[in-house]
Each structure stands twice: as C-alpha cells, then as structure tokens.
Amino acid sequence: MANAIRLQMAEKKKLPFVLKLWITVNEDTTECLRWNTAKNAVIVDLGLLVTDYTKALFDIETEEDFLSQMRRNQFVLSSTDPSNPEIFVFRKKLFVKRNDKKFREVLLAEKIMRRICGKTT
C-alpha cells in the first residue's frame, strides 16, 4: 500500500473494527479478506478466515463472530458464490478503495491520538 501507515499488531487490535478491516484488506496479508476486482466490495472467504492472525486482530473465535461484526458495522451481504458457499461479498457505502486517502488520514489521526492518550493513561 503506497504511503502505508505501519502499525504493530498491538496497535491494530485497539482500532475500531472498520479500520482493522481496511488495513487487512489493503495489506494483502491474507487471502481470506480482499477487495473484489472493482475494489468496491470486500470478499470474505470463510473457509480461510479463522486463523491465529484474524482471531487475534478481530477478537473472534468463529466465522459467525466475524459475520456478526460485519453486520454490526453496517456491511451488507451483496452476494455469495454458488460454486463456493464459503465466499461472501460485502458492501458498505464508503468502504471503497478510492477512499484510501481518507482512511489513511483517519488511521494517522488514530495512531497519533493513541500515542498521546496512551502516555496519560
């Protein structure tokens, strides 16, 4: 990711769900969460989802835990793959790749605020 904001796992875990998802989709670190071709929806591969990394980052134990977080954060299931029932495609209005700059600004602000506030708590 160009101009990436590097965060350690401990920092990522403290972020809101949507920012964690944004980082994961854009880092290309896992096959289970990725952009669709148009980069306007997130593909979730439930068969690959529950790994040590995603369990720790998203604080989940099961696929259903993750799907519940998606619903709580207003992601809408837009389609599934009939040939592979473990593939789900989710959409959220502003969760699109072209908003990369806005998300990076929010991530940077979160990182700065956590460092400032972390020193006083």
UniProtKB/TrEMBL annotation:
Entry superkingdom: Eukaryota
Keywords tagged on the record: DNA-binding
GO molecular function: DNA-binding transcription factor activity; sequence-specific DNA binding
Claim: DNA-binding is one of the keywords in the record: yes
Every HSF-type DNA-binding domain range: 17-104
InterPro entries: HSF_DNA-bd (IPR000232), WH-like_DNA-bd_sf (IPR036388)
Similarity-based family: Belongs to the HSF family.
Name by which UniProt lists this protein: HSF-type DNA-binding domain-containing protein
